[in-house]
Design the sequence.
């Protein structure tokens, strides 16, 4: 299978407006393009404008444009000579790039339009399409380069398979169970003077819906296909037995809400609400930090019960979906379920749930969601809370980390995919998955990370100081049976990631000068009493399999044993033991080791380690989709590796972890209170004996 190169460069055209019936004629041209992956793509023009007036350019893909017109209009300045242009004429700071949402790979029709006076010309030399974070103009402006692309400018895509993870547009939520009265809202045919209780007597405005006195069990039903340029922030509280509901009725697209300068949908300190089928946004030019869906717990008693089902949040000035509290005020929510939601192209994070400290938000489930092309702190994350579950989600092309937990207790991340994450200027603090500082008893398992600019899996603490009364150490966390492919660093153990277990993972690395597995820190802020065993580590090209710096060597109790290393057809040292954190060559070539005998002598580690063929073809490409990922399955008859063996959890380790975890009724949400002994490998095959 040949590689697909990014970006895509297309030949342009000369646009010469001719006389039309209207005063400002328009000319357009179209190109059929094959876009190999879903996501947000940017539209770039290399254009020349000989006119003395700026030329207005717009675009569409398959006849569709973004929700906000500000992201479709580009001005080519007068006198422009072969300039690469992508920023729209609106927006704060540098503005927004012209963007196109690709929901399904394959052939699409890109149409470029330009308006001007008769006789004027606009020369479009080239049209480029680049994946979010994917490329930028070269210094001379003649081409595009992808040197800062998380995928290295190259991505590989498998044959299409039915999606098993992430958001699905054909997903059907459970049937509505409305126990009270239903009120209908129709932006086209409604009338606020009516009673709203039937579709024929629907209200018109969301302001009327916001003013309604809802009783427990009532529902607000929004007409499908309708759109409002005002926010929905209904009043009232449901009860545990009679939830309040916001949903849709009729046929067509989801009801679309633009909150303007405020959130599209908002609740504050309100309990027991189910919200489904909404398409929410804000005006990113004026909305500040307002999110598309913004739910805040307030400063009083902790509210309970939020369900977000089948919602879309996009192009907002702040986060897409945010369920949290004021900064260091309030505890967040108890009992949040976010299922089959899509969040993309927001100025903030994609999906975030948070409280103030480790005992904050509780019982959070984020399931079958997709988050991509967001510019905030995360694609999906749980921050400052306890007992959470993120499962079967897909997160890609987001800033900082695609999926992570921070300052949290007992968050499980499982069966998720994360790729093409990056943070400009900070590659080591960005990537696929992250158990970040102050996290206790958290688990990442059966996940797939690939083509990230930074770490596939960052496992870190942040020293031994306190944050709001809780330690910044990360303790008793587990990372097992995951895959990292073509990340900068596969497994990155940093600072006080203490008493952790890292086993049964498969890491394939190919970044020259970077390790597949790294342990490092500063002085005493290093991993203590952490076991790294049974992992399969493949270092391609000039990557290293393992690197441990001087700080991490000093009596920390880090144990490396029973890992299998492989170079494939490449040459050069596999290990770096010692040296400075940022200058591995300091101290001479003695830090570079090519065999296990030298590593054992230098470190006293890996008594049972191997340098051995992992039993698969060591492909230099992998594609999208957590499964089947057959490229990395061992060949029939090959000796079993660590990723196929059962590593039973130490009862003493579980007992110590259990003392730090509190049962908040999480079983009712399907959230495990502790990890169970594994029974299957990444692919679902029964594990062999330990």
Sequence:
């Amino acid at each position: 299978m040949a590689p697909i190169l990014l970006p895509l460069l297309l030949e342009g055209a000369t646009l010469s407006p001719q006389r039309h019936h209207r005063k400002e004629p328009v000319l357009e041209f179209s190109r059929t393009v094959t876009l190999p992956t879903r996501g947000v793509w940017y539209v770039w023009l290399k254009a020349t404008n000989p006119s003395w007036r700026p030329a207005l350019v717009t675009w569409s893909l398959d006849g569709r444009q973004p929700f906000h017109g500000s992201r479709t209009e580009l001005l080519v300045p007068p006198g422009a000579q072969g300039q690469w242009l992508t920023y729209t004429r609106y927006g704060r700071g540098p503005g927004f790039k012209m963007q196109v949402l690709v929901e399904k790979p394959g052939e699409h029709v890109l149409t470029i339009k330009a308006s001007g006076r008769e006789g004027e010309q606009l020369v479009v030399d080239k049209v480029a399409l680049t994946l979010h974070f994917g490329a930028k103009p070269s210094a001379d402006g003649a081409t595009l380069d992808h040197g800062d692309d998380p995928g290295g400018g190259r991505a590989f895509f498998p044959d299409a398979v039915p999606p098993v993870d992430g958001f699905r547009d054909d997903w059907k939520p459970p049937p509505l169970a409305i126990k009270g009265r239903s009120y209908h809202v129709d932006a086209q045919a409604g009338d606020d003077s009516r009673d709203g209780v039937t579709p024929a007597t629907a209200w018109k405005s969301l302001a009327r819906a916001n003013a309604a006195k809802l009783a427990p069990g009532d529902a607000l039903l929004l007409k499908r296909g309708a759109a409002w340029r005002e926010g929905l922030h209904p009043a009232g509280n449901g009860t545990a037995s009679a939830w309040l509901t916001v949903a849709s009725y009729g046929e067509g697209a989801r009801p679309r809400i633009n909150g303007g300068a405020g959130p599209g949908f908002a609740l504050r300190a309100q309990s027991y609400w189910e919200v489904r089928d909404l398409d929410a946004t804000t005006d990113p030019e004026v909305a500040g930090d307002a999110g598309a869906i913004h739910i805040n717990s307030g400063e009083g008693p902790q509210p309970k019960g939020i369900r977000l089902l089948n919602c879309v949040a996009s192009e907002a000035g702040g986060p897409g979906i945010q369920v949290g509290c004021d900064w260091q005020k309030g505890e967040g929510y108890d009992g949040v379920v976010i299922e089959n939601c899509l969040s993309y192209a927001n100025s903030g994070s994609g999906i975030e749930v948070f409280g103030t400290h480790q005992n904050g938000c509780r019982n959070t489930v984020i399931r079958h969601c997709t988050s991509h092309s967001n510019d905030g702190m995360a694609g999906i994350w749980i921050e400052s809370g306890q007992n959470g579950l993120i499962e079967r989600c897909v997160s890609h092309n987001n800033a900082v980390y695609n999926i992570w937990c921070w300052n949290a207790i007992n968050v499980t991340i499982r069966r998720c995919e994360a790729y093409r994450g990056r943070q400009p200027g900070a590659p080591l603090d960005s990537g696929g998955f992250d158990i970040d500082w102050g996290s206790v008893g958290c688990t990442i398992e059966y996940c797939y990370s690939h083509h990230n600019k930074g770490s596939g899996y960052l496992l870190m603490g942040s020293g031994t100081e306190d944050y709001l009364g809780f330690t910044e150490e990360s303790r008793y966390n587990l990372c097992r049976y995951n895959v990292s492919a073509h990340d900068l660093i596969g497994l990155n153990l940093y600072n006080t990631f203490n008493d952790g277990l890292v086993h049964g993972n498969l890491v394939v690395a190919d970044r020259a000068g970077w390790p597949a597995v790294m342990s490092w820190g500063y002085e005493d802020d290093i991993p203590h009493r952490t076991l790294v065993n049974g992992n399969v580590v493949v270092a391609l090209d000039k990557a290293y399999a393992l690197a441990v710096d001087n700080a991490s060597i000093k009596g920390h109790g880090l144990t490396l044993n029973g890992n299998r290393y492989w170079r494939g057809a490449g040459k050069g040292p596999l290990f770096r033991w010692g040296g400075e954190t940022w200058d591995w060559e300091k101290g001479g070539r003695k830090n570079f080791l090519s065999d296990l005998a030298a590593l054992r002598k230098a470190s006293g580690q890996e008594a049972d380690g191997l340098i051995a063929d992992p039993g698969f073809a060591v492909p230099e490409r992998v594609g999208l989709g957590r499964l089947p990922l057959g490229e990395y399955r061992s060949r029939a008859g090959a000796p079993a590796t660590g990723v196929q063996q059962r590593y039973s959890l130490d009862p003493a380790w579980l007992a110590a972890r259990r003392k730090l975890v509190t049962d908040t009724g999480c079983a009712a949400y399907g959230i495990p209170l502790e990890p169970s002994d594994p029974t299957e490998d990444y692919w679902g095959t029964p594990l062999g004996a330990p």
